[in-house]
From TrEMBL:
Keyword GTP-binding included in the entry's annotation: no
Domain (Aminoacyl-transfer RNA synthetases class-II family profile) ranges: 38-341
The protein, known as: Proline--tRNA ligase
Keywords, comma-separated and alphabetical: Aminoacyl-tRNA synthetase, ATP-binding, Cytoplasm, Ligase, Nucleotide-binding, Protein biosynthesis
Native source organism of the sequence: Paracoccus amoyensis
InterPro entries recorded: aa-tRNA-synt_IIb, aa-tRNA-synth_II, aa-tRNA-synth_II/BPL/LPL, Anticodon-bd, Anticodon-bd_dom_sf, Pro-tRNA-ligase_IIa, Pro-tRNA-synth_IIa_bac-type, Pro-tRNA_synthetase
Family: Belongs to the class-II aminoacyl-tRNA synthetase family. ProS type 2 subfamily.
Summary of subunit composition and partner proteins: Homodimer.
């Protein structure tokens, strides 16, 4: 993309309404615009990152064998009356009447609808296991929308639902989700720690929230510092293997890590004092096994191997796709702006032309731009007639992890500068070497992409 043709409305001043750094930087970098409390337009740069995050979520869900579909945002109230949640859900649910006075709602989640799809189409245990998911906008009329996309009213969520014959099978689905989530967040450059959470009214141990540690997080968390040493890394896993998925769950839940709802002082006190941590975290996902809570009242049954009809065992598993932008920025920024992890960056590299209109710098920039694109990278070329300082400030603010600076003096020696946004370190390289270097950096990241439906 050439910046002269892009739409990047950056702000010079800090917006007053933003209380936390991610919200401030998203506004300043021209990523979002608030349209009403907790409701945002996604401007091109924000939209691009949102799509990158969505793509990673799709790839990792499908790698785990989960099947994408798309359900609507508006739902009929009748479905929710069947589960009993239409009255229970309270004021967070946005209720709407159509012209025929029929009750609709803007979906805050999709357990009822997916259960309806399942019961209408599946009737034999032979069609199990099955996990369906979608990435769709949700609406929750939060009492206090704040912190930008972190707590919106309209927000994008991946929600997946597993259908299994037995509790044992459903717990494998639970573990499979845990593994896929670990991979998902790591690809985004995030450490999200699975923490034992509150099972709500139906209780049980089978729910974990994934938390990114950050001072601005809304959840209070308690953990053993050893948990932060664990990484999933590039290990291969067979998602069909009950043992392999179980082993990952055990490893990642082997240390104390809980949200305040499940925190137990007595157990916590047994951890050596120097490893005990109390901190704040941002909830970026949650997995949940809830058995037959919806399948029973809604009649989602299958004929089992013995010929009897039984309600299926289900769970639901969510990732806060739009909230992740905020969480990633909270974890990756400095005084100058955002520092995108390579896996989610809107553009892989910025090209700064120090002397726009100069025949040699212009043609060198064009050549680099084209070569990067030929190699599958997505560069942002600042081809505006602006001062160097202003160009650097914009690049730093929007946080591209790499920058190539092209000026007449360097070019005289066939050199450009390759700068690492995070460390600030620069290297003088020939244009070819710079492209080569970037190609090496991004190849392993591109290799993580799996084919998606
Ligand atoms: P919270 O406790 O933060 O209100 P939740 O537990 O009600 O969230 P879930 O139903 O578990 O949310 O939804 C799955 C994921 O969707 C959450 O882990 C979170 O990342 C994201 N999410 C939930 N509410 C919001 C919101 N208002 N704005 C943005 N993302 C949200
Ligand atoms: Mg939750």
């Amino acid at each position: 993309m050439r910046l002269s043709r892009y739409f990047l409305p950056v702000l010079k001043e800090d917006p007053k309404e933003a209380q936390i750094v991610s919200h401030r930087l998203m506004l300043r970098a021209g990523m979002i615009k608030q349209q009403a409390a907790g409701i945002y337009s996604w401007l091109p740069l924000g939209y691009k990152v949102l799509k990158r995050i969505e793509q990673i979520v799709h790839e990792e869900q499908q790698r785990a064998g989960h099947v994408p579909l798309l359900m609507p945002t508006l739902q009929s109230a009748d479905l929710w009356r069947e589960s009993g949640r239409y009255d229970d859900y309270g004021e967070e649910m946005l209720r709407i009447k159509d012209r025929h006075k029929r009750d609709l709602l803007y979906g805050p989640t999709n357990e009822e609808m997916i259960t309806d799809i399942f019961r209408s189409n599946v009737s034999s245990y032979k069609d199990l296991p099955l996990t369906l998911y979608h990435i769709q906008w949700k609406f929750r009329d939060e009492i206090r929308p704040r912190f930008g996309v972190m707590r919106g009213r309209e927000f994008l969520m991946k929600d997946g639902y597993n259908f299994d014959l037995t509790k044992e099978d459903a717990l494998h689905a639970y573990n499979r989700h845990l593994v896929s989530y670990l991979r998902t967040y790591e690809r985004m450059g995030l450490q999200a720690i699975p923490m034992r959470a509150d099972g709500g009214p139906i209780g049980g141990d089978y729910t974990h929230e994934f938390l990114v540690l950050a001072e601005t997080g809304e959840s209070e968390v308690f953990y053993d510092s050893q948990i932060t040493d664990l990484t999933f890394g590039d290990r291969q896993i067979n998602y069909d293997s009950v043992e392999e998925c179980q082993a990952v769950l055990e490893e990642f839940t082997s240390r104390y890590a809980r949200t305040d709802e499940t925190h137990d002082e007595a157990v916590f006190a047994q951890i050596p004092e120097e490893r005990r941590r109390t901190a704040r975290g941002i909830e970026v996902g949650q997995i949940f096994y809830f058995g037959t809570k919806y399948s029973e009242p809604m009649g989602a049954t299958v004929v089992g191997p013995d010929g009897n009809r039984v309600p299926v065992h289900m769970g639901s598993h969510g990732i806060g796709v739009s909230r992740l932008l905020g969480a990633i920025i909270e974890a990756n920024h400095d005084d100058k702006g955002i520092i995108w992890p390579e896996g989610v960056t809107p553009f892989h590299v910025g090209i700064v032309n120090l002397k726009q209109g100069d025949v040699s710098t212009d043609s060198a920039c064009e050549a680099i731009y084209n070569e990067l694109r030929t190699r599958g990278m997505d560069p942002l070329y600042d081809d505006r007639d602006e001062r160097a300082g202003a160009k650097f400030a914009t690049m730093d603010l929007i946080g591209l992890p790499w920058r190539i600076t092209v000026g007449p003096r360097g070019l005289a020696n066939n050199k450009v500068e390759l700068t690492d946004r995070r460390s600030g370190e620069s290297q003088e390289l020939s244009p070819q070497e710079a492209v080569e270097r970037l190609s090496k950096i991004y190849q392993p990241i591109f290799a993580l992409s799996a084919p998606t439906a």
